[in-house]
Design a protein that fits this description.
The chain is mainly beta. It has three domains: 136 residues, Sandwich (Immunoglobulin-like); 150 residues, Immunoglobulin-like; 135 residues, Sandwich (Immunoglobulin-like), CATH 2.60.40.420. Helix content is 7%, strand content 39%. The protein has four helices and 35 strands.
Length: 501
């Protein structure tokens, strides 16, 4: 069983106690940091990158697509000479990639063959609350859950993972996760790499910590404020991976599926790449870049160009966490990891040039907003002074409303903020417009200590007071500790006051 960190017991009893606790943490972090060096892997990239299989659906006479997923336990070979106990979907670790089109009627049969209850959440999907897979849609051992919905959102790289209240960090860390790719008819002619597993590659990045027997360890560093930060990187469940590339351009769908670690992706030779998509869809146009930073739950699609016979390594450079020394170092801010080596063939298939326009992102205007709501992320477990209560609805939003949410990180550690159901746009970060890579559709946003981000979105789904949606920190230990709230969609005549269920 995963034990909650000791810090979860330290609540906001009094300001003095909190101040003393943070001072002690900082002092301990300073001592711990002196003994730490930035992590740099010395890999030989001996293992071919595993590509999660595409899950083929059953299609009935009416065109409905049914996908079958079985959540199961098993053992997986990560390190030489060790069999690691893991969880997965249709496999011992991770799960298959689901792929569907806008307009598809999808149904998913999720069978729980685990020994404990769990859920399966469709991260980034716009769908009814009862189908969301949050903590209210628990699947008991031996039971089958069958959500269904009509896909009505732009092409995007989404993902799925467990979301049981208080147990999400443990269930995700054990290995249940997978991609859900949405295609869209009007993007088929964009001439983007789209041959799955050939020039269109899922890259699911996770950090893990192994004990002396090769088992997953949840031991935390003495100055970690975010939970487990592992020093071994898995990509699609592969340790020490390489990818053989036969095309001039390759599309990498980057997913940070880690519990807590933030990555700043780039290449070891600082080559430029085209960033074409963020969490919930394609950008207006490609963004020329050498770095893209992703917090847990965030995604990015990049296209990198290769030359015959060369090798280049995707690397995570030290991310900007905004925490300052020593906490920046002890929470992953000084770490560098080699992630994946790309090995180009001696002859490469030609690829057409990238289009100058990718999508037409509808912009919400601030003057459309019916209201502005404020959210303060406090400590490790509170939003607006309250911890998660499954019986309490924190926000009620009229259907169809456009709203601005102002989110402030009022703690001394980094957080990120994920909203179920909606895709939002970032209006500003500490009053400044977002950079181009953050100007598209998002569902998760990073916040450094003291930072304020304003987002805007339209909330439009069928009202269902019995099936709330979540908003929460996607640092999974923080989420489990209570940094989560609930909202429902109501008819436009309902008020917006918090209620108790």
């Amino acid at each position: 069983m995963r034990r909650p960190p000791v810090r979860r017991a330290i609540r906001w009893v009094a300001l003095l106690v909190a101040t003393v606790a943070l001072t002690a943490v900082a002092a301990g972090a300073w001592v711990y940091a002196q003994a730490q060096e930035s992590t740099v892997d010395d890999l030989d990239f001996a293992n071919p990158l595993a590509i999660p299989p595409l899950l083929e659906p059953d299609i009935d006479a009416d065109g409905r697509k049914t996908f079958d997923l079985t959540l199961q336990s098993g053992e997986t070979d990560f390190l030489p000479g060790a069999q690691t106990a893991t969880w997965g979907a249709n496999d011992t670790y991770l799960g298959p990639t689901l792929r569907a089109r806008r307009g598809d009627d999808v149904r998913i049969r999720v069978a729980n063959d685990l020994a404990e209850p769990t859920t399966l959440h469709w991260h980034g999907m716009a769908l009814p609350g009862a189908m969301d897979g949050g903590p209210h849609q628990m699947i008991d051992p031996g039971e089958i859950w069958q959500p269904h919905w009509l896909i009505d959102q732009p092409a995007a790289t989404l993902w799925y993972h467990p979301h049981p209240h208080g147990r999400t960090a443990d269930h995700v860390y054990r290995g249940i996760a997978g991609m859900f790719i949405i295609d869209e008819h009007d993007t088929d002619e964009l001439a983007l790499p789209s041959d799955y597993g050939v020039d269109d590659i899922p890259v699911i990045v996770q950090d893990k910590q192994f004990d002396g027997d090769g088992q997953l360890s949840t031991a935390e560093g003495p100055a970690s404020l975010v939970g487990v930060l592992g020093d071994d990187i898995l990509v699609n469940g592969t340790h020490n991976p390489h990818l053989d590339v036969a095309d001039q351009r390759v599309r990498l769908r980057l997913l940070n599926a880690s519990n807590a670690r933030v990555y700043d992706f780039g290449f070891d030779d600082d080559r430029r790449f085209a960033l074409i998509g963020s969490d919930s869809g394609l950008l207006d146009e490609p963004v020329d870049s050498t770095r893209v930073q992703l917090a847990p739950g965030e995604r990015a699609e990049i296209i990198v160009e290769l030359h015959p016979g060369e090798r280049t390594t995707l690397r995570s450079y030290p991310p900007d966490l905004g925490m300052g020394f020593p906490l920046e170092r002890t929470n992953g801010g000084h770490d560098t990891f080699d992630v994946l080596q790309l090995r180009a063939a001696d002859q490469l298939r030609d690829a057409p040039p990238l289009p100058g326009t990718l999508a037409s992102v509808e912009r919400h205007r601030p003057d459309e907003a019916a209201t502005t709501r404020t959210f303060e992320l406090e400590g490790f477990s509170r939003i607006n002074g309250r911890e998660m209560d499954m019986a309490r609805i924190d926000q009620t939003i009229p259907r169809g409303a456009v709203e601005i949410w102002e989110i402030t990180n009022a703690s001394n550690t980094y957080h990120n903020f994920h909203v179920h159901l909606v895709h939002f746009q970032i209006l500003d970060i500490d009053g400044d417009p977002p950079p181009p890579e953050l100007a598209g559709w998002k569902d998760t946003v990073f916040l450094a200590p003291g930072q304020t981000v304003r987002i805007i979105s339209r909330f439009d789904t069928e009202p269902d007071p019995d099936a709330p949606f979540m908003y929460h920190c996607h640092i999974l230990d923080h989420e489990d500790a209570g940094m989560m709230g609930q909202y429902t969609i109501a008819p436009p005549t309902d008020n917006n006051a918090p209620t108790d269920r």
